[in-house]
Write a structure and sequence with these properties.
By secondary structure, the protein is α+β, with helices and mostly antiparallel strands. Among the domains are: 78-111 and 121-197, Dipeptide-binding Protein, domain 1 (Alpha-Beta Complex); 297-517, Dipeptide-binding Protein, domain 3 (Roll), CATH 3.10.105.10. Helices cover 28% and strands 21% of the residues. The chain contains 16 helices and 21 strands. It has helices at 30-33, 66-75, 122-133, 151-155, 185-188, 199-205, 260-269, 279-285, 314-322, 326-334, 370-384, 399-415, 428-436, 455-458, 475-486, 490-507, and strands at 46-51, 80-82, 88-90, 93-98, 104-109, 166-170, 173-177, 222-228, 232-237, 251-256, 274-276, 291-304, 339-340, 389-396, 419-426, 442-447, 511-523, 527-528, 531-532, 539-540, 545-546. The strands form six sheets. Strands 11, 12, 13, 14, 15, 16 and 17 form a seven-stranded mixed beta sheet that branches. It has a four-stranded mixed beta sheet with strand order 1-10-9-8, covered by helices on one side. Strands 4-5-7-6 form a four-stranded antiparallel beta sheet, covered by helices on one side. Strand 6 (166-170) and strand 7 form a beta hairpin. The radius of gyration is 23 Å and the shape is globular.
């Protein structure tokens, strides 16, 4: 979601709006909600939720964050989509034929329509994908399509659009050729960047495209409506959607709320149906029937800007990493199911060729050690000729982020004498903009997976990568990632990925990973069928419904 959902922390509030992700489990009642009976509850099918952030981008060409990708997942549909069981299931594609060598995918499209009543065609996919890859589009997510033959060359101005191996054979047939076999490709086609666009409509809208609900076309379960900046938005059921009989909800109202306490109050008053919780509310509600908690696959970390002369020093970066207690942060400060992380590829996420989890036998790198952190800091200061230094921590403007940022400031200033930290809190979209421009020293960031493979976390740190905003660069790291991308031997590939993570965190201390995200929330018992995903968009409302309210 950034890529790989440019997942940024927007606080516990987004749990009900767009950026709540779960592991491989679905929300309670999801199987019932996904039935094909077409039966509807007698209850009014309206869901009321909140989000800690507005929608940064509606266009799949430029979307980079978890909020935008979750909105796109519910108002658009790709060739495939993740279902209630986290499996890639046909979306606009009715079927797919994969060649024996695993390189050529031939998708047959079903009869489906845009919200204006026109047909969705294979050409809509070819146009949209090549639009993402067009160097002029400035898409930060173009690299996710590099698995397609000719995609990287076109995106880096070394090839032509016609050389990209995506071809609309006819209105109902799309042929795609890959550079190497990729078992996850079907699920990848359900990711936000792979959504279709109708060329005629996009060009007619010009610069206004995707700027408001009526300058966008929809082919998913819902259409967007009533989008008011910094206030909220609504989804309405899409009557043109091919599978509309299995969409129960008629309306979803999303209100932007940045304070967790406000969200809890709205929940208690019955104004909203879900609310995310921070630590101070967990103990209060943990024994309630409507309380739930789970471990997510999203990782949160401190990104350090290598363009800063002081942060180029590894000892200073090492001091920053070991100068705060990750366990206390997760267990006490967050207290929401999050766990301390000394690794970047999450637990219970991806299994290797031996069937074992990536984390099996390797809990990570580094540990909290105040005395060691102090020694590293002093060594680093001496090397850069300083007796003290000031650093700014870029963060989000929600309650949870403020709490974590203040904790980090306190720990660092206590354990690293001579360090002064200032906190710069920014709204979600503004923070992403500052990061993309490299205008930060330390940045509190998050990342969620786009597909179920360690590469979705690790390839972002290659030299020049669009989400490598701290400008970390290592020939060894680049070589390991490139090797893993091309390696056909599964065991050798897996080892290259493990070596890359070790290089990133132990040898280079490029980032400081804080925790693997946990989620605690309140959910009204009459809310059924919301599906939370481990990869790609965080949430699907297609199968959600209200029953017993």
């Amino acid at each position: 979601m950034e890529k790989k959902k440019a997942l940024a922390l927007v606080g516990a509030l987004t749990i009900a709006g767009s950026s709540l992700a779960a592991c491989s489990t679905t929300d309670e009642g999801s199987k019932e909600g996904g039935s094909t009976s077409g039966e509807k509850s007698s209850d009014k099918q309206v869901l009321n939720i909140i989000s800690g952030s507005d929608i940064p981008a509606l266009s799949p060409t430029v979307a980079t964050d978890s909020v935008s990708f979750t909105v796109l997942n519910n108002v658009q549909e790709g060739l495939f989509r993740l279902d209630e069981n986290q499996e890639a299931t046909p979306g606009v594609a009715e079927s797919v034929d994969v060649s024996e060598d695993g390189l050529t995918y031939t998708f047959k499209l079903r009869d489906s329509k845009w919200s204006d009543g026109s047909d969705v065609t294979a050409k809509d996919f070819e146009y949209a994908w090549k639009r993402v890859l067009d160097p002029k589009s400035g898409s930060q997510y173009a690299y996710i399509m590099y698995i397609i033959d000719g995609a990287e060359a076109y995106n880096t101005s070394k090839g032509k659009a016609d050389d990209v191996a995506v071809k609309a054979v006819d209105d109902k047939t799309l042929e795609v050729k890959l550079t190497q076999p990729a078992e996850y490709f079907k699920s990848l086609t359900g990711f936000g960047s792979f959504m279709p666009l109708k060329q005629e409509f996009v060009e007619k809208q010009g610069k206004n495209f995707a700027s408001k609900p009526d300058t966008f076309l929809y082919n998913g379960p819902f259409v967007l409506s009533d989008w008011k900046t910094d206030v909220g938005w609504s989804y309405k059921k899409n009557d043109q959607y091919w599978d509309k009989d299995n969409v129960k909800l008629e309306e979803i109202n999303t209100k932007i709320v940045k304070e967790v306490s406000t969200g809890v109050n709205l929940y208690e008053k019955g104004d909203i149906d879900l609310a995310g919780l921070t630590s101070e509310f967990v103990d209060q509600y943990k024994d309630k029937e409507d309380f739930d908690t789970r471990l997510d696959a999203a990782m949160y970390y401190i990104q350090m800007n290598f363009k800063n002369d002081l942060l180029k020093n590894k000892d200073i970066r090492k001091a920053i990493d070991s100068g705060y207690d990750k366990k206390q942060m997760a267990d006490v400060l967050l207290n929401n199911g999050s766990i301390p992380a000394y690794y970047y590829v999450p637990k219970d996420f991806a299994k290797g060729p031996d069937g074992k989890d990536f984390r099996d036998g390797n809990e990570g790198f580094g540990s909290y050690d105040a005395s060691s952190a102090k020694a590293s800091f002093e060594k680093g200061l001496k090397a850069v000729g300083k007796k003290s230094l000031k650093l700014e921590l870029l963060s989000y403007d929600d309650d949870n982020s403020k709490k974590i940022s203040e904790y980090l400031k306190g720990e660092w200033e206590k354990n690293l004498p001579g360090l002064e930290v200032t906190i710069k809190q920014q709204p979600f979209k503004n923070k992403l903009d500052l990061e993309s421009k490299g205008e930060f020293e330390l940045s509190f960031a998050g990342w969620g997976p786009d597909y179920q493979d360690p590469m979705t976390f690790l390839d972002m740190w290659v030299t020049g990568g669009p989400y490598n905003r701290g400008k970390y660069s290592s020939d060894k790291y680049d070589s390991l990632i490139k090797s893993a991308q091309k390696e056909v031997d599964a065991e050798k590939r897996w080892q290259a990925l493990k070596d890359a993570e070790k290089t990133l965190l132990e040898e280079d201390q490029a980032i400081s990973v804080m925790y693997q995200k946990g989620v605690s929330l309140l959910r009204k018992p009459y809310v059924k069928g919301i599906v939370n995903h481990k990869v790609g968009a965080d949430t699907s409302y297609k199968w959600a419904y209200i029953e017993g309210k």
